[in-house]
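Below is how a single chain appears once it has passed through the pipeline. First comes the sequence as given, then the structure the pipeline wrote out for it. We keep one example in the README because the format questions we get most often are answered faster by looking than by reading.
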Amino acid sequence: MRWRAILRALAMFLILAAVGAGVWTQRERWQKTAEHEVVAKPGSGPVEILSVKLSDEAVQGLGLRSEEAKLQDYPRVIEVPGVIIDSPGRSPRAVSSPVAGVVNRIHVSPGEAVRPNSPLFTIQLASEFVQSTQTDLARFAKDLVAATVRRDQTAKLVAAGTKAGVELIEDENQVRRLTAQVEGHRRQLAVFGFDAKDVKNAEAGNAVTEIVISAPSSDPVVGGSVSTTQDTTTFTFEVESLAVAPGQAVTGGQLLMRLADYRELLIEGRAFETEAALVANATGEGKPVGVDFLEITAKAGVEAEAKLVIRSLGRTDPATRTFPFYAALANEAKPYERGGKTYLAWRYRPGRQVRLRVPTGIIPKVIVLPAGAVVREGADAFVFRQNGDVFDRKPVVIVGEDRLNVAIAPGNGIESGVFVLRNQAAAVNRALKALQARGFGGTGGKKGHWHADGSFHEADD
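Resulting structure:
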């Protein structure tokens, strides 16, 4: 038993000796590494990266766009909300029945596109006055033919000296009276919705029992955006709503439908009365107002903005202490067919919210970039200058900005003539941060940039 205890103690001593030797060896290795390795391994800390090189796939995937920087004037603006509305007296069109009757047929449906002068309703006449007007027209027209023949015969006899001239005067007076009667009845039937063919039939004694109500003529849009000549081949109107149904009896002047002509709309802006002087100044001087439609253009990948001129100002609302102002907006539509009918896809429609940018002054000789060209880190702002296939991050001083654009002071390598990234600056900055995470640094780390192949290029001191 005693020898077993001695052997057990000896084995334990040898084990502890081996463990101690290993720990001492590892300690010496750590100390040597700390003395000779000055730079930490990748991933140990950030490094100040000055530029980044992106692959062609990354550039195409992000849709990066670079353009030459130019010195220009940056307009100071105030931003106010706005909404697209109908153009009063032009956009909405009411169609009413000119005569009492029954709706036999409706030729269009809600939402359908309508050409000028195209048929909308067929109305069966139910007015005794209209019927008596047709009868009187046919009678007066027949009497006028007879009176004209008699006048011509009298004129021949007067010329031959066989009749007195006073009889010719009486016949001519009769022709004038009947002509006035015929013309009056023709106009009356036209008021009742008769077209030229219907009036001619009624005058010939063929009573008209139904009429067709057509769309109004196309009016030119103010500003010349639409031709001033009448065009009956272009879809101009859109059926907004129907007010009757087939078989329904209607009276003269009753509303049948509402049409919409959206070729020209208005943008109504709302500004506070404290901004009245600024808006009035922009209106009087004809300064273009920026209109942000809050949409992204597919081609450029940036927010769409138009320039319009304020047309008029409105009265201040005492409740909200705001006042409206208006600018004309030319519109366009793309027709398409569904189920054999044509519809219109208007670019703008009433009710759409917009943001207006009213100019109030300028900042001269600055570089104006889209808001997406600037990235911020705390109080600092940066842009990326393109240098071949490398993007260099440069700190900039912002002297003015709004929701869409940023004005920066030239300097620090961002001058007129250099190419500057105009979009996706935040995405490129994230790529740069990813390189920092893989960098050599820590405090006092090396400066430089990473290439796409993963190699690090140290910057010269």
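The chain has four domains: 49-73+364-458, 79-88+262-361, 92-127+235-261, 128-191.

See the next section for the split statistics.
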